[in-house]
Design goal:
about 260 residues; alpha/beta; Purple Acid Phosphatase, chain A, domain 2; seven-stranded mixed β-sheet; six-stranded mixed β-sheet; 6 helices
């Protein structure tokens, strides 16, 4: 099974670049399932129905998200609609709309996808490790062993721990949130693919997809600022994970950045 996972799509500029490069790349790489993190796909931040529609129409089979998943109230109806392939971190409060896990089916293949959020330097959420165990056990009980985990977290240490905690239990633990791709893709000892952060889909000459002057003002002064998303050349950071369809073990993980 060949699974393409695309890093955080940032703003309309990122959405447009996704539309430009994703369809041909999927075809060239013989992708079976495509998962896209879209939590910053709206102008500014957060997600909107229109940005989710754009990502799905561009070729995503499922959209994952993160700490900005519910930033925009307009998106709540999409999370509540079970027919829309959109998930948010499973360890959000139990009253949050939506769900944190999905099962994709295609040509006799089944892929489980779990979305979790870290707790170090992040908003308060439930324990992601407890939630991961519960959801992985639930998928295994249904005979699903091809499992991708989108772990949306800030701290490298927390992401590494999640990778080793789930090693041999899931196909891949893929980090998102920091928008900067890391060069540590590997197959862990018991057969789980891992990378600390996949990266982002958005404008290259920016600060994590935000206009440089806005980000600089925030960092240097500590004062509030209205973030803007610049125009310019874009990239799509992503990884392809190939798994053994029967066991769910990862056979390879490869990192790409498409301009």
């Amino acid at each position: 099974m060949r699974i393409l996972f695309v890093g955080d799509v940032v703003a309309p500029q990122g959405c447009q670049h996704l539309r430009r490069v994703l369809p041909a790349f999927k075809k060239a790489q013989n992708i079976d399932f495509c998962i896209v993190n879209g939590e910053n796909s709206a102008q500014g931040n957060g997600m909107l129905p229109g940005s989710c529609d754009h990502i799905l129409d561009s070729g995503a089979d499922l959209i994952t998200s993160g700490n900005h998943a519910l930033k925009r109230v307009e998106i709540e109806k999409y999370f509540e609609n079970e027919n829309i392939p959109l998930i948010r971190p499973a360890n959000f409060h139990r009253l949050a709309p939506g769900k944190g896990m999905a099962v994709l089916e295609k040509r006799g293949m089944r892929l489980g996808v779990i979305n979790l959020m870290g707790r170090i330097y992040m908003d308060t959420v439930e324990n992601p490790f407890d939630e991961a165990k519960k959801l992985v056990d639930a998928l295994h009980s249904e005979g699903i062993h091809n499992i991708i985990v989108d772990f949306h977290a800030e701290a490298t240490s927390e992401k590494r721990v999640m990778g080793f905690e789930l090693d041999g239990k899931v196909s891949a633990v893929l980090g998102t949130h920091t928008h900067t791709p890391t060069a540590d893709e590997q197959i862990l000892p018991s057969g789980t693919a891992y990378i600390t952060d996949v990266g982002m889909t958005g404008v290259i000459n920016s600060v994590l997809g935000v206009e440089i002057s806005c980000a600089a003002h925030k960092v240097i002064t500590g004062l509030p600022v209205h973030f803007k998303n610049p125009d310019g050349d874009c990239k799509m950071d992503c990884v392809i994970v190939e798994t053994d369809n029967k066991t769910g073990k990862a056979l390879s993980i490869e990192r790409f950045s498409l301009t």
